[in-house]
Amino acid sequence: MQKPAPPKFFPGAKIALFGGSFDPPHQGHALLAKAALRKLGVDYVWWLVSPQNPLKNHKPQNMETRLAEVRDLAGANTEARRFIVTDEETRLGTQFAIDTVQALQTAYPHVDFIWLMGADNLAQLHRWKNWQDLMAAIPIAVYPRPGFAHKAALSPAARAFEQARLPTAAAAQLADYQAPAWLILDGARSSLASSRLRADGQNNSVKKDD
Q: Structural domains in the chain?
């Protein structure tokens, strides 16, 4: 099957990059993506469905299944026309965020990108490949997650780049800042997690078989 052509962004477009394995996608992901549109003033949220999370041993469902599920989730929202769902990392041959960001910045030099992540990811960002380079390469917006407020705020990455932290009120201008620049958004919090949903699905399957 022929893969879709990459999107054509207009010069000066502001794009929030939302990467993840999305295995499975859930309403918490949609909540974050919608908040990005509303608070960051971006033109699009680009859902980058990753082939594999490098920090997880779990093998995700096949890409076609996850792409279809993410498209269903994104398409069910009124903001659907501003959501782009792709397997861009598979096509680029990248697995790590820093490699993806550098490849996209090279491919789209006239686009202003923001990296979008949950507070749980900021808490462990120091485990990511070349995480300091990532912080220095792209503005980062962090969405709150239940139970991770203090862990994120006190994480090695937050402490190392404390001087680059912006107030939440600067969210709409984040794409205009030169990295390193990051902030923590405010908004409704979801306790949903893909790992928990997978576990619940497995438990339900066992119960049905009994």
A: 14-209 (3.40.50.620)
